[in-house]
UniProtKB/TrEMBL annotation:
This is 5-methyltetrahydropteroyltriglutamate--homocysteine methyltransferase. HAMAP family: Meth_synth. Belongs to the vitamin-B12 independent methionine synthase family. 5-methyltetrahydropteroyltri-L-glutamate binds at R23, E24, L25, K26, K117, R519, C520, W565, E609. It comes from Nocardia aurea. It is an enzyme of class 2 (transferase). NCBIfam families: met_syn_B12ind, PRK05222.1. Keywords: Amino-acid biosynthesis, Metal-binding, Methionine biosynthesis, Methyltransferase, Repeat, Transferase, Zinc. Its EC number is 2.1.1.14. Zn(2+) binds at H645, C647, E669, C730. Coiled coil: none annotated. GO terms for biological process: methylation.
Length: 755
């Protein structure tokens, strides 16, 4: 069959998840790493997973199928391989698969690439390193194999690659001008286009999500040049450029002005389409309308989507229905959820259900809405039931929130609090502490699994967790730490643990989403008003405090982080949800205080993550997120010391917000950035307690006393001793007990030496 390259398609998704509906790829990959299976077996499992996905998409009526969004670890790393941009330090590893995994996870002798968040999602990608030594070269073998495999199965394959602009802007490039390397990359993409054309591929999708961020005029010019150049190639499939996670704004007319054949737009927020309607050049292109939200779990409002499609129909030469982004960010299918209550389930759509929604909309587009009349009626009924469900509106919570005044987010001035707290706590100079979790030992995981399966009863589970707490307290006393923690043995996850105990959240059984590599998470679903049923942590922390005369620091997760790591409501502003969660956390802090706890840490590691991609949207976000934190932490008396923990080293845009949190003590990741963060904090006028992490917990290496002493001395150059705390970079749950004990011993010795 010969396909004319410009035959438009009508229904697709922008990308696919790959860990497997039951995390098959995760298990296979880990088995490969452990040497239990060989590469052949791993490839076989991967192939079966892809094949099942292709079959599902074809059966669901997709007439164009993304190929190449499969990955053994990460799609950005795959692109680095495709473009010959792996760092030289892995070049010595001859086996391509092992070289790939070495770049992803490191080996005994090789440092892995850094990891960071993919735009404003919870997915972490590996950051390519581009240096003057990087010589790009096309290595398309893996992509071409997948294309062959799909074509052989009769799949209308649409290869997907990350575009050169997004690739370079997502990389680490010491020159500070990453797009200068575009002229080296464009010929490689042209080469790829001609190879795909030779295979008879009809369309290629080039992902450029970076177009939805703020770009300078010269960057937009660069985009125009790249796509003018690529579309001028004579041997090529039809070219679809995909943007997602927002709207491309000024980049849209630039892109549409080139001779590419199609543009994918994120239409999940369909409120204002004027910006799209105002681009006449779209009239010559296929518009792939991402009207089905690819990254949240709510069932699509089909009426609204159809209205948007109706508007867009007049703007483009042809229209295809799609998801707003890859389905990488949502679970595979609702079918796996047996326990979810029927009502809630009828409001949701996971991956397979979203594919079905795309199909329905494409059908309605082709044959009119009557063709899907039954489905439209069902969706409307579910939406009405959802709107009127009593769980969506808790009158008490709403009354409390509307009664709040400015005092609810205000404490006494920080220096007054400092005096009161130091009288109460009587801590030594340079107090030592940890960030909360201690190693999650196999005993802990076994106990949790046994309790979930009903093999041990509640009392036995409690007994085992208390034994863990007692051990961690004894260890900390032995080590001579000043502020102790209970170690968080009872927490499967710092968000899920709270979500399970709050009204308004639902948990899934198999709603796994890839976080990075083989690590998957099951984000809770926030569907209703949030209320705390009962104290959530007081028994555990109170028990820990009963075992020691040293202060035990209560440990809570902050409202922003709870939202960032959940699927959130789409029927009210995120700021309203944040305030509701904040109230629940506030009640918990007050209960901890009543139980005699004098120090409470409210973790906000995700504060930076939710930061909007567009600068113009950032101030409003920072205002409500800081307010929510303060609402959560201002209910206690001034003698109670509030800590927070943030774990990213590049503070940039959020530095002022950190001061705005007004926490008495802030612990932050700093070891890898060599304490530079302290200068940034000083420059922002930060004058509260600070605990810059004195060693990196991401590696099993035990830091020496001398090394930590040097770190502390460096910190003292920037922060006066009265404000300086001594702690590791982050929680210790991923570390082994032996390294933890040695590292903390050295940390305490270093604090002693510096005192
Ligand atoms: N208290 C948490 C812990 O120690 C904080 C984790 C985090 O910052 N992500 O595990
Ligand atoms: Zn952390």
């Amino acid at each position: 069959m010969t396909v004319s390259p410009h035959t438009p398609f009508t229904a697709t998704v922008l990308g696919l998840p790959r860990v497997g509906p039951n995390r098959e790829l995760k298990r296979a990959t880990e088995s490969y790493w452990a040497g239990r299976i060989d590469a052949e077996r791993l490839h076989g499992i991967a192939r079966d997973l892809r094949r099942a996905q292709f079959a599902e998409l074809l059966a669901a009526g997709m007439d164009s199928v993304p190929v190449g969004t499969f990955s053994y670890y990460d799609q950005v790393l795959d692109t680095a391989v495709l473009l010959g941009a792996l760092p030289p330090r892995v070049a010595g590893i001859t086996d391509p698969l092992d070289r790939y995994f070495a770049a992803a996870r490191g080996t005994d002798t090789v440092e892995p690439l850094e990891m960071t968040k993919w735009f404003d999602t919870n997915y972490h990608y590996l950051v390519p390193e581009i240096t003057a030594e990087t010589t790009f070269a096309l290595h398309p073998e893996q992509l071409l194999e997948q294309v062959d495999e799909a074509l052989a199965l009769g799949v209308p394959a649409r290869p997907v690659v990350i575009g050169p602009v997004t690739f370079l802007k997502s990389a680490k490039d010491a020159s500070g001008a990453p797009l200068r390397r575009l002229p080296e990359l464009v010929p490689l993409y042209r080469d790829l286009l001609s190879r795909l054309a030779a295979k008879g591929v009809a369309w290629i999708q080039i992902d450029e999500p970076v177009l939805v961020t703020d770009l300078t005029e010269s960057e937009i010019d660069a985009v125009r040049e790249v796509y003018t150049d690529l579309s001028a190639a004579t041997e090529r499939p039809a070219l679809l450029v995909a943007t997602y996670f927002g709207r491309p704004g000024a980049a849209l007319p630039a892109l549409a002005g080139t001779a590419i054949d199609g543009i994918a737009l994120d239409i999940s927020d369909a409120d204002d389409l004027s910006e799209v309607a105002g681009v006449p050049a779209l009239a010559r292109k296929l518009l792939v309308a991402g009207v089905v939200d690819g990254r949240n779990v709510w069932r699509a409002d089909l009426d609204r989507a159809l209205a948007a499609l109706g508007t867009l129909l007049g703007c483009a030469a042809a229209l295809a229905v799609s998801t707003s982004c890859s389905l990488l960010h949502v679970p595979y299918t609702l079918d796996a959820e047996k326990e979810l209550d029927a009502e809630l389930r009828s409001w949701l759509a996971f991956g397979s259900e979203k594919v079905h929604e795309v199909r329905l909309l494409a059908t309605a587009l082709a044959a009119g809405p009557d063709a899907i009349a039954d489905e439209l009626a069902a969706v409307r009924a579910a939406a009405t039931a959802r709107r009127t469900d009593p769980r969506l509106s808790d009158r008490r919570v709403r009354a409390r929130l509307s009664a709040l005044d400015a005092d609810a987010v205000r404490r006494a001035p920080a220096d007054e609090r400092r005096v009161l707290q130091s009288e109460r706590l009587r801590l030594p100079a340079l107090p030592t502490t940890t960030i909360g979790s201690y190693p999650q030992t196999s005993a802990i995981r076994l106990a949790r699994a046994a309790s979930r399966k009903g093999e041990i009863d509640e009392a036995e589970y409690l007994r085992r967790m208390r034994a863990e707490i007692a051990e961690v307290i004894a260890l900390q006393e032995r080590l001579g730490l000043d502020v102790l923690v209970h170690g968080e043995p009872e927490r499967n996850d710092m968000v899920q643990y709270f979500a399970e105990q709050l009204d308004g959240f639902a948990a899934t059984e198999a709603g796994w989403v890839q976080s990075y590599g083989t690590r998957c998470v099951r984000p809770p679903i926030l569907y209703g008003d949030v209320a705390r049923r009962a104290p959530m942590t007081v028994d555990w922390i109170g028990y820990a405090q009963s075992l020691t005369d040293k202060p035990v620091k209560g440990m809570l997760t902050g409202p922003v982080t709870i939202l960032a790591w959940s699927f959130v409501r789409d029927d009210q502003p995120l700021s309203d949800s944040a305030d509701q969660v904040a109230l629940a956390i506030r009640d918990e802090t007050v209960d901890l205080q009543s139980a005699g706890i004098g120090i409470i840490q409210v973790d906000e590691p995700a504060l930076r993550e939710l930061l909007p991609l567009r600068t113009a949207d950032q101030p409003a976000y920072l205002a409500w997120s800081v307010r929510a934190f303060r609402l959560a932490t201002s209910g206690v008396s001034d003698t109670t010391q509030i800590h927070t923990h943030l774990c990213y080293s590049k503070f940039g845009e959020v530095i002022d917000a950190i001061a705005g949190l007004d926490a008495d003590v802030t612990s932050i990741e700093a070891a890898r950035s060599h304490m530079e963060v302290l200068d940034d904090l000083n420059a922002a006028g930060f004058a509260l307690g600070v605990g810059p992490g004195v060693y990196d917990i991401h590696s099993p290496r035990v830091p020496s006393t001398e090394e930590i002493t040097a770190s502390l001395r460096a910190a003292l150059k920037a922060v006066p001793a009265e404000r300086l705390w001594v702690n590791p970079d982050c929680g210790l749950k991923t570390r082994g007990p032996v390294e933890v004990e040695q590292s903390l011993r050295n940390m305490v010795a270093a604090a002693d030496a510096v005192r």
